[in-house]
Amino acid sequence: MKDPDPQVSVLDVAAYILQRQGEMTAMKLQKLVYYCQAWSLVWDEQELFTEEIQAWANGPVVRRLYDFHVGRYKISEVSDGDSAKLSKMQRETVDAVLKYYGDKPSQWLSDLTHAEDPWKNARAGLPAGVRSETVIPHAAMMEYYSSLG
């Protein structure tokens, strides 16, 4: 498959999610972009956005998106994102993820990520609550989520 052009950022994906779903907590948005990346790797065999996902104490987090929303509990738009950059295939992937995960509460999504191997393995050996910027590798995400379905 060819790489998406122009390059899509996590902010572009977040902007698209918010257009489709409306206002949500910052935590929920972080978990949804994580699942969008994971399922894009499985279904489309390519990354959806270029930024790394880190295994923070409270779950998978994209630092660039965090830097955008830091200090805010709810987010209704991502002014720095451009949802029009997503290709038709990318929008279909995000829509499929939102169909399954989009109506779930923030805490449910957080608990789910904490129970899954990519986050757990990236934090292996770290006590609960300890800060970490360990990257969750794409290969680990693809291997785990492709085994689900």
Topology:
Layout: H1 10-21, E1 24-25, H2 26-43, E2 54-56, E3 59-61, H3 63-69, E4 74-75, H4 88-101, H5 106-115, H6 117-122, H7 138-146
Antiparallel strand pairs: 1-4, 2-3
Helix pairs in contact: 1-2, 1-4, 2-4, 2-5, 2-7
What percentage of amino acids are in beta strands? 5-15%
Which structural class do you get from the secondary structure elements?
mainly alpha
Low-confidence stretches: none
Over the alpha carbons, how many angstroms does the gyration radius reach? Answer: 14 Å
**What is the CA-CA span between the terminal residues?**
21 Å
- Report the count of strand segments: 4
Query: What is the general shape?
Result: globular
Please trace the helix and strand order, writing H or E for each element: HEHEEHEHHHH
Quaternary structure classification: single chain
The averaged pLDDT comes out at 94
Helix content: 40-55%
Largest sheet features? 2 strands, antiparallel
* Total number of distinct structural domains: 1
Number of helices in the DSSP assignment: 7
Strand order of the largest sheet: 1-4
